[in-house]
Amino acid sequence: MTTPLDRLQSSGSGARGRGETAIDPQALMRIKSLELRARVVVEGFVTGLHRSPFHGFSVEFSEYRQYSPGDDPRYLDWRLYARSDRYYIKRFEDETNLRCSVVLDMSRSMGYGSGPVTKAEYARTLAATIAYFLTLQRDAVGLITFEDRVVDVLPPRHRPGQLRRMLAMLERTPTGRATDLAGPLEEIAATLRRRGLIVLVSDLLAPIDLLRTRLGSLKARGHDLLVVRVLDPAEVDFRFETPAMFHDVESGRELYIDPGAARAEYLRRFAEHAAGVERACADLGIEFAPMTTDRPLDTVLFDFLKARERRGRRPDRRRKSGQGGGR
């Protein structure tokens, strides 16, 4: 039977050494169901990952646990078996619980799109994909959306109905009037009191000093962060050719711009801001993943797993006694 993945995956792409499937974002967005989009991306990513050299990302040994039918026999510890006459397998950090909050920028600037895919639609699909992936892994995942203020907060949980609640939040139409990262990030820092992983999805159109301060505040509270910057390709390379009136989606102003005269200065300022964002994240020890809306979304999942592999996770060890995990 043909699956949505079979129809969307580029012919002959396979895994390109990173577990990617090259699912075209424009084709993906033709699927109306946000949950089905997320499923297609995750299935494609997992398929590509199995075909690639990366059969697993966790290499840090944590503890032993008794063998159960269905466990991979490659991880049986034969030396321990020789001493105890019992089968045990090595347990890895990747099997422990994770608390993750996806923080999604839904401000007016995210509504821009030079093509059929807007930054907002791409970002919400990306958020749904991460949520779907973590739900399959039985991790606790939550969602915070903001415009010029925090709009919705769903704390990280792993329980029936959590994914559907997140998807319902993501389907809401943004009504914000401006991009204001200062207030929302300050409120989020005060809201997320339990340490965990925060995935911030935004175009980050804010002053560098402000971003550094607010992201630093989240790091100071003990959170791990992955910042995913979503931009339209036209914002990156200024593809406009003909003089025209440009509409500012946040202020509502109409501006006449001659691309030939403005391109050099725009590209200089954009490069300066992009370098500042990347430098701020590096200085703070924050994982940074720049994305444009024409890139396959499964590349973010690869960056997500790399971030967890490099930095490790902070599992709640109490969950074994039924006390942790926010479930």
Automatic annotation (TrEMBL):
Residues 97-261 form the VWFA domain. It comes from the Bacteria. SMART domains: VWA. Residues 1-13 have a biased composition (Polar residues). InterPro entries: DUF58, VWF_A, vWFA_dom_sf. Residues 1-20 are annotated as: Disordered. CDD domains: vWFA. This is VWFA domain-containing protein.
